[in-house]
Amino acid sequence: MTLLADKIKNQALNFGYEKCGIIKISDIDGYKEKLDERIEHIPEAKGFYQSQYRFTNLQDAYPWAKSIVICVREYGKYYIPEHLKGMIAKYYLVDGRKDENSKDFQDSLKFEKYMQDLGFRAETERGFGLVPLRFAAMKAGLGIVRKNNFFYTESGSSVYLEAWLIDKELESIEIPNVRPCSDKCNLCMKACPSASLSKPYTMNPIACVSCVTTFMGRDMANEKYREQIGNWVYGCDVCQDVCPMNKNSWKATEEFPNLQELSEYISLEKILKMDYSFLEEVMQPKFWYIDKSSVWKWKVNAINVMVNNYKEQYREHILYACNDSNSKVREMAEWAIKKLNLQ
Ligand code: B12
Ligand code: SF4
Ligand code: SF4
User: Fold this and answer.
1) Are 99 and 203 in the same domain?
2) Is the pLDDT of residue 2 over 90?
3) Is residue 69 assigned to a domain?
4) Are 164 and 69 in contact (CB under 8 A)?
5) Which atom, in ligand 2's list, is nearest to the CA of 240?
6) For residue 81, what pLDDT is reported?
7) Residue 18 contacts residue 137 (beta carbons within 8 Å)
8) Domain total for the chain?
9) Which range marks the domain in which residue 141 is found?
10) 73 lines ligand 1 (CB under 6 A)
11) Residue 258 within a domain
12) Sheet harboring 67-74: ordered strands across?
């Protein structure tokens, strides 16, 4: 490791990252093979994964870039409101990628500026990223990928990844110090509600509850995995929550900005009564996987959970949703009434 690579890594740790590595841009070449392999195993996911091929030609897309700085940051340090567990995936509740109030976001900006002040060109994208993040983190030796496809460090899988393309040739690679999955363990696969995780190291994004409740799910009443969604309104944590390698890894020692206040506005019943201005202006910027024009999905997803686990107290709320201003919500509510025989 050069002195400069060492300096960057140390600065990342000073800014709160758990780990930081640097790989050559050409180290990412093997990702195409992994993506092709995924599509070969799960042919129905071909359409979904088409856009991921943007990660396979980084040298053409960014001819100035020489290396990738890849960082790991823990989010298992945050307190999660009890009533939202099992309903909204934990990562999305404490997602600092675009939240200007979060220290994670501020530190990311500071770290980027630090690299730029060193005289580098350093670029990232604080959404889905510019590079295949798990692959880059594996190549940098910062941890390992487990059978549930998640990237783990010593702190488990409640870590997210961030990367910058830089125009300087540098390298900083570690040797991971994490025990692999035991040959016998299949707890994550057994627990996956929709069999998206049917085999080790692969998954079907179209069947994944996390995808169905965010990007997809435009016709929930006829959704193939509707019942398997269970109680999830947005995202899914099952294959991580059951993993023994995550046991006791959630520390909950810090508050994520504004989460406690916001959580008081969220429950299945409250979602059905939410104003569209609240959904668009407060919920959407935080939970940005559902775009502004699709915020009706929150209500449809909430009705689906009410149907999957019906309680008498939901009746009036489902009836109320029959008068929602959005036709998708009205249709879902009417479908629920028939399905549950409420009238
Ligand atoms: C597309 C995407 C999705 C899609 C599809 C997921 C998928 N697994 O392909 C959907 C919408 C379903 C999704 C959902 C979620 N996502 Co997502 N997603 C991404 C994204 C943008 C690209 C992933 C991708 O390229 N997939 C294609 C496959 C082929 O590549 P891969 O999974 O990255 O890596 C595999 C290969 O590299 C392979 N591999 C490489 N080398 C080797 C070597 C060996 C020996 C083996 C065995 C395997 C192997 O193993 C990896 C895992 O299979 C990344 C961000 C990014 N820029 O990378 C986030 C990312 C993967 N998502 C993330 C998260 C947290 C989630 C959710 C947990 C959120 C939630 N709680 O609901 C869910 C969980 C669903 C799930 N089971 O994956 C995190 C994962 C962090 C971590 N610790 O691993 C990432 C890295 C975002 C981030 N900034 O941190 N996601
Ligand atoms: S996130 Fe949920 S649905 Fe998706 S693979 Fe994991 S357990 Fe299965
Ligand atoms: S549940 Fe078992 S097989 Fe799955 S990732 Fe965890 S240790 Fe590996």
Assistant:
1) no
2) no
3) yes
4) yes
5) 6
6) 98
7) no
8) 2
9) 3-79+89-166
10) no
11) no
12) 19-24, 67-74, 159-166, 122-123
The two tokens of residue 322 are 């029959």
pLDDT at 1 over 70: no
Q: Half-sphere exposure of 215 toward its Cβ, with a 13 Å CA cutoff? A: 8
Is the same domain home to 212 and 130? no
Residues 57 and 121 in one domain: yes
- Residue 72 clears pLDDT 80, i.e. is over it: yes
Q: Is residue 327 part of a domain?
A: yes
Classify 281 as helix, strand or coil: helix
Closest-lying ligand 2 atom to the alpha carbon of residue 207 = 3
> Given this model, what pLDDT does residue 130 score?
98
21 CA distance to ligand 3 middle (Å):
25
Tell whether 162 and 198 lie within a shared domain.
no
Tell me the β-bridge partners of 88: 234
Q: Tell me, yes or no, whether 177 lies in a domain.
A: no
Would you say how long the chain is, in residues? 343
Give pLDDT tens digits for 23-52. 999 999 999 999 999 999 999 999 999 999
304 lines ligand 2 (CB under 6 A): no
**Residue 17: count of CB within 10 angstroms of its CB:** 23
Q: What percent of the chain clears pLDDT 90, i.e. is strictly above it?
A: 99
Q: Is 148 in the pocket of ligand 3 (CB under 6 A)?
A: yes
Type of residue at 61: A
What pTM does this model have?
Answer: 0.97
The CA angle 302-50-220, to the nearest 5 degrees, is: 20
- 192 Cβ contact list (under 8 Å, min separation 6): 198, 238, 239
